Amino acid sequence: MEANVPSARSRALAVLRVRSRASAVGLLPAALAVVLVAARATGRLAGDPWPTVTLVVCVVAVLVLLVGGAFAAVVLRASPAVTPTVPLSEAAAPDLYRLVRDLADRMDVPPPSAIALTPDCDSWLEDRSHAAHRRGAARVLGGAPGPVGPESEPGAAPVLVIGSPFMWWMRVAELRAVLAPVVAGTGPSAHPDIADARGFVRGLDAAVDVGGRRGLGWIAAPARLLLRLCRTDAAEMERGVAAAASERAQGVDYGLRIVAQEQVGLAYAGWDRLLTRVALPAWRMGRWPAHLDAGVVSALTELSRRDRLAEGFTSRLGERPACDLLEQPGLIDEATSLLAARLFHGGPAEAGPDWSPVDWAEYPEEVVDRKWRTEAARLHAALDALAVPAGRPASPSAPASPASPASPAAPAAPVSPASPAARPGSQGPSGAAGAAGPATLAAADSPSPTADAFAGPTLERVLGYLTDGGGEGAAGEALAGRITGELAREERAAGPAAGAGKARGADTLPLFPLQPPRSGRDLLADHVTAMVCCAAVDSAGATPGLDWLDGPVLLVGGDRRSDLAPRVLCLVEDGNPEPLRDWLSALGVRTEKPVRLV
Fold first, then answer.
1. Distance, CA of 136 to CA of 146 (rounded, Å)
2. Model confidence, pTM
3. In this structure, are strands 507-508 and 502-504 parallel, antiparallel, or unpaired?
4. Which residues have CB under 8 Å from 182's CB, separation 6+?
């Protein structure tokens, strides 16, 4: 037995003592009532006021027993929180199950009852043997009730939850080394006292959630009190279990585990950038990248190329990737990608007309170009609301006729989908490395032949309005406020995502929002950048592209232009358009030419 198991067991007994004391408090009025009734029956407490006292104590005892019984029933029956995962049956990953069972045999611990994947860079054991799960609760977020699996049987071993990015980025040997201490945790988990203490804490946590329902609000207060009383001992118990598991796993791939932990940190960095910079813009457009796990390989390969601290990591890619342990990695990748969209953005549980997958090869056309043109349209709608004329105004506050030619109903024709031939050089992640170049999208000019030099949604209109010789940026403040309000109205009109229910009690989706709300200045800078990119695409032969770490980018001659952001900020914050005008002039962008909008 590991040295830390007795420590974990002693902490588990301390947690159980809290439960015993709570039970004793609930039974104390009943015990006192029994003593009083017995004393009255034997004549030891005759005369006043004992009859009244006995009656009051009996009534109080009955009420306490009823309340305590209801509380205990809620704690026992409330469904503990379950991590949203993609379950992996043994038929879907026989090699992975074989690897995990081999680890368990080498460490002499029970094997996990099942394996599941989650779109996160972590791995852990999760107990799903609660009776609530055996009553047919869905094991997948948003899923329909199904048959009981082996993980839901009474006394079943915990489920091994593996972060899906690990499966695609790590090699088989690295995954085995990283999973060894996690699998070793099934040993201490099987100890009766530790399992009982964990069940009690999970029941209290679920009872707090139940307390948010109508008519059961009183449940939450005693549950929180008991959680506070056992919080320290429960935390120390988990530390002891983790230490015991780590000690048991030292004899299994210990040297390789030190190296593999570096890959864990690298995977986390690449996964975070991929979600926030690449996936989030697509989710906001109603599209979800169908192969996020394959994309993380390209993102991490690009990170290894840019970061000298990550040099040499790509040499591992010649080894067998851990995703080869899956029978159909493409289908599993698609399922985890959809779950990631639901967890981090609150999207629907299933694909539909307004929530469709997008491949990496189609990302520049279907996401980047649409994103830019949508934001450009919103920018001009805000200018229309401020009655800004289509031409270059004399000053930001110059009056304009309400019948301005830049009305939102007739600025330009809607965007037409580009043909497959309009995507030269478009390429997504392929092979084990997935090191693909930036995908590009060919541009198409579609100016109105009857438009004059300043008609329609032009970049010149934006530059003229935001130009502020005083450098105070008052025009930018007004425009930023309009854009912020318009976005808020769009979000309210859209409402909650279709199919977005509750993951657990009062926890609504998304469970893990990726970004805090953006400021008005940030939104204005994004919209001006989108307008500049649209103008560059329509009049200078630039193309939308995808950077695996930075998301949507502008490509000129196949090369990324990363020098646009400071010039846009100079215009938005200081009202100085000259740096941006110089940049546009060097690129050959015609600011007076109308751009296509959605």
1. 6
2. 0.79
3. antiparallel
4. 123, 124, 125, 160, 245
